[in-house]
Amino acid sequence: MPAKILSVDDEMDLELLLTQYFRREIRKGEYEFKFAHNGLEALTILLKEKDFDIILSDINMPEMDGLTLLTKINEMQNPALKCIMVSAYGDMGNIRQAMNNGAFDFATKPIDLDDLRLTIEKAIEQIQYIKTMQKEHTQLESIKGDLAVAREIQQAILPRIFPPFPENAHQLDIAASMNAAKDVGGDFYDFFRIDDEHIGFVIADVSGKGVPAAIFMAVSRTLIRATGIRGVRSSECMTYSNNLLSKESVNSMFVTVFYGIYNIVTGKVTYTNAGHNPPYIMRTNGSVEELPLTKDVVAGALEDYEYIEETIQLEHGDTLLLYTDGVTEATDANYNEYGEERLKALLKKSAHADCQQIIDAVKADVKAFVKEAEQSDDITLLALKRL
Length: 387
Prior knowledge:
Blueprint: E1 3-8, H1 13-21, H2 23-27, E2 31-36, H3 39-48, E3 54-58, H4 66-75, E4 82-88, H5 92-100, E5 105-109, H6 113-157, E6 172-179, E7 187-193, E8 198-206, H7 210-228, H8 234-248, E9 255-263, E10 268-274, E11 280-282, E12 288-290, E13 310-313, E14 319-323, H9 325-328, H10 339-348, H11 355-370, E15 379-386
Parallel strand pairs: 1-2, 1-3, 3-4, 4-5
Antiparallel strand pairs: 6-15, 7-8, 8-9, 9-10, 10-13, 11-12, 11-14, 14-15
């Protein structure tokens, strides 16, 4: 696209002078000149055609002078439109005022056309830089908007209605929370009814952050839910899900998963832990037990791996707390970690709280610990209590 230049001068011979001197650039399509003979005429042209790059304006003109025109141009708030002011050599007061009012550069009469060429070239370089920045800014704003929508979608696919099973509200309590470190996260939680007696529940943490992790999170969550809701054993669910994730994994992404099946009637939990942080059992007597580590690997890393399952028993009043490492690895400004011991100490004081109170307490304690430090990882929690 040619650089569009609007020359504003009441001296008619300037039009012939410019078109003659810049004839090669005009012929090559590098420059395109238009001419006005006072500020008012120039302003009319600018209101009709908003794609000019350079205004070459005399200061002293009838009807509307160049300084007034410069003021009107500034009101358009177009940083990519550059004004080069022209005046007599001895008119330094007006030239200084024009420069103070935002003119890009100036030229004195009689105009040195070789010097004007360099000034125009310098202006074009800056205009191209500004336009590039504006384009990138527009792209970033578009990406930011897309991420905001993606965040809403990600939050929408996670269960958000509590209590989730009102017909069993006298038998169990469930609450969960996910706070992404970026616009979108790689953590997720889920729970779903399998049959009248069994509830499936899961917490997971995808490797990496941002959009790739969010996409892998959505795929993992959908796959585990679709498999688990069929009523298969937890080990079978994770074995099947892992095989599919391993085949489709890009850039060696993986996900740590704790998937459990809770029997509403008996309080029995069968579970498979695919490389995730071991949950805690909060007993009614105030003790806190960490589930033993298992040897099962993370999901999505090793195809044809056979997962195992373990069993635990929740007594009436016991709570199972699941969390991602964004909780224990949260750091303060001095890079001290929140840690498992702090979490365990807090849970000992929360044995008789309901699930939402427990989650709120953990989040508040982590926030108080890190203070003003930036959140570096997703923080996700899920609590299940046998009533």
